[in-house]
Amino acid sequence: MASRVSDEPCTTAVVQLSHRAAQLLHLAAQGLLRRGTRKARKPDVTAAIARMGMLQIDTINVVARSPYMVLFSRLGSYREAWLDEALAEGRLAEAWAHEASFVPSAEYHYHRDYRLGRAGHWAHRMAERTHAEARTDMDALLARIRREGPLRAADFERDAPGSKGWWGWKPEKKWLEAWFALGELMVLRRDRFQRVYDLADRVTARWPEPLPAGVMDEAAVREYFIVRSVEALGVARARWLADYYRLKPRVTDEELAPLVARGVLRRVAVEGWDEAAYVQASHAALLEQATSNTLRATRTTLLSPFDPVVWDRARAIGLFGFEYTIECYTPAAKRCYGYYVLPILHRGRLVGRLDAKAHRSSGLFQVLGVWLEEGVQPSPALVDGIATAIIECAAWHGTPRVTVESGQPKGLAAQLKRACQR
Length: 422
Hints:
By secondary structure, this protein is α+β, with helices and mostly antiparallel strands. Helix content is 39%, strand content 18%.
């Protein structure tokens, strides 16, 4: 979804939004407001990623790897292969964005040309350090790919175990990732989710649309990412914007003022917020619906822990009053809920969380626990919505047998069990 930028001055009065309208505007921008009216199609995958601006990559596979799960939350049942095919066809690229992410290939040059702006990112720092320590070996690896063509980390055989750090990767994997972070290598495709690396210019040469020539000005790239962040979030405070594309320094109201003056952004006031918020110009129709209270949320679904809606803890609290921590990186004894807990979105509200595990070999979708937020009552409509979301997710996984082992408040697990058996 391309950002529409205008240089026309903006003299429109500040729009007033209720807090509920702000929530719905955010979900509409993210593609999470309503259920689809048809089955998902292959182009919907790239359209969803374009809407979000990126799709964060994570390899944890307890339920589904995060990028596939984020798409499921928006599209419902779809073929996971469509994501892999879009990458191989050059409609998507991999880049460091929020973190390692799929991005629209049409926007890749912004990520390529913002490397100086991301020089402080941990992946870039590690890549620079690795290159300084292993320059000769890294150059030899690059020469091999130039000579032999695309390669995986698995194509570099090594008997010795991997080293500490970088997740215990063997040296060749670290060198591949370092060249990826430094821009010399790109991901051509994935084989069973393993990256296949090739020279960056050979990857982009295969794309349907050529990359723009030249290098963009860093300030122009930063402005583009700021505008894209507002577009992807629907409505946002200035202090939420830097996190989306990992911009430094932080974004301020002063930096956004010229964009408001040019009509690129619209300043709005949200009930209960003591600072300005912003809406991107392309969302004028959605903003009109939000102010007239005609946005309606009907979707109930499970979200990935790495979904854009919840990956910024402060934003999730500010928009939804939902405090969320990804506990897979927390020692088991210190977890409040579970290893891979999925937020539950119901009709425009984050109403609870669910800890699940998909046992693909036995066809079992195991719900270890479900917890509703304080003050949320298990009404029949809510129970039915959550049960439907569980059943749909389980069927998409090929794990149609569902068990629900515990729930809060009392009696929730039993209600969900009955609803899942209908």
